[in-house]
Write a structure and sequence with these properties.
By secondary structure, this protein is an alpha/beta fold. The protein has 14 helices and 19 strands. It has one domain (9-194, 297-407): FAD/NAD(P)-binding domain. The chain is 37% helix and 26% strand.
Length: 410
């Protein structure tokens, strides 16, 4: 393993992107400390789809067997009309994905993926510290002096005459902001506007397949498309559970940054309007919904949006995207893999290595962001555009639904 010359990489954020980045760096022999603001690592009860571009990375990290224990591997993706229930097209996954792209298409609970990455990162020597929020940093001759919200609070308490233990700022050669769509690291680095509300609301649910009647259970990915709405459901946890996500148009909620608000079935059904019997029955089978407001940013326009000097952004902190290509987590994990490779190089300054990372990643991320926005318009289309979509899917099927540049790249 090459000598990197790095004494400490500090990662802000212990979600999927942050843990993947920590693992990727540690695998390159780079010392890593990860700070997560939550008191314990936990993920919301939702599933994600991970295409061959992502499962290929997990396999390269030696996590193929662990993935097989907790994920589901659907054999097909099917598109249906939300109002008529008619099948519009199908894409074979399973053996076809393995043969074409060298890795499977998987569906997994977020918590299972996070736990897998956390365990492997710790085994690789990553120092994970909980209850720590990166607030800012300053350049010094030795590198970056990184301050946390907890450190600032302790300092303020001391100034008020209260007893509070304080620690010196954390020192690092590199700071990686993997702290999500509301990233504090991004705000300090770029100082741009907050992520924008898309006008779309997502409702999610997890249901034990054993609690559903046989005809509502599923071992495939199904996408229902209708006017100003779409619904996706697929198996997770080895097929024992069914994950459902329904996305509709709506007003920005009062707590727009909440990821786990209560969702009301009546509000969802009202926003959806009339849907077919098959879809209505499936939605009605859900005992409880959670809701969040979808936010994104315009597609990236250059490498400067991902790295400047000794600081870089990763995942949602850099390129939050709409879920209509199912690649939010995927792009974060691709970022992580490239970041580890660049920081693990034995030549170039820290800034040069981070610029190499940003140059390697920004255009692909921008392409995925743009395609996700386009897909959302197609999924939610009305009138002649919806008619054209349906006809095209019936005629072209797999040729239209597959994404070789995405699944084969990375």
């Amino acid at each position: 393993m090459a000598e990197t010359g790095l004494k400490q990489v500090l990662i802000a954020g212990g979600g999927i992107g942050g843990l993947a980045a920590a693992l990727a760096c540690a695998r390159q022999g780079v010392p890593v400390q990860l700070l997560e603001r939550a008191a314990q690592l936990s993920e919301v009860g939702a599933g994600i789809q991970i295409g061959p571009n992502v499962t290929r990375i997990l396999q390269a990290w030696g996590l193929g067997a662990a993935l097989a224990q907790v994920a589901a591997f659907p054999k097909r993706l099917q598109a249906r009309d939300a109002q008529t229930g008619q099948v519009l097209g199908s894409l074979r996954l399973g053996e076809r994905a393995q043969a074409l792209y060298g890795a499977p298409y998987a569906t997994i609970h977020r918590a299972d993926l996070q736990a897998m990455l956390h365990a492997e990162a710790q085994a690789a020597g990553v120092d994970v510290r909980l209850g720590q929020t990166v607030q800012g940093w300053r350049e010094t001759a030795e590198g970056l002096a990184v301050t946390t919200a907890q450190e600032l609070a302790a300092g303020a308490a001391q100034q008020r005459g209260e007893s509070a233990a304080t620690e010196p700022p954390l020192m690092a050669d590199v700071l990686i902001g993997a702290d999500g769509v509301w990233s504090a690291v991004r705000q300090k680095l770029l100082g741009d506007a907050p992520a924008r509300f898309t006008g779309h609301l997502a409702y999610r649910a997890m249901v034990a397949q054993g609690d559903l009647p046989a005809h509502l259970r599923s071992d495939q990915v199904t996408v229902w498309m209708g006017p100003r709405l779409h619904v996706v459901h697929y198996p997770v946890r080895g097929g024992q559970w069914l994950n459902l996500i329904a996305i509709v148009h709506g007003d920005k909620p009062a707590q727009a940054d909440a990821w786990d608000a209560t969702g009301h079935a009546q509000a969802l059904m009202q926003a959806m309007g009339p849907v077919g019997v098959d879809l209505h029955e499936r939605l009605a089978s859900v005992p409880a919904w959670r809701q969040w407001a979808l936010h994104d940013r315009a597609p990236m326009s250059g490498a400067g949006e991902m790295a400047q000097g000794r600081v870089a952004l990763l995942g949602d902190a850099a390129h939050p995207m709409r879920p209509y290509l199912a690649q939010g987590a995927g792009m974060a994990m691709e970022d992580a893999q490239v970041l580890g490779q660049c920081l693990g190089a034995d030549a170039g300054s820290v800034a040069e290595r981070l610029q190499a990372y940003a140059q390697a990643r920004w255009a692909r991320n921008a392409r995925v962001q743009a395609r996700a926005i386009r897909n959302g318009r197609i999924f939610h289309a009305t009138g002649p555009v919806a008619w054209g979509r349906n006809v095209s899917m019936r005629l072209m099927g797999e040729r239209l639904m597959d994404v070789p540049w995405l699944y084969g790249g990375g």
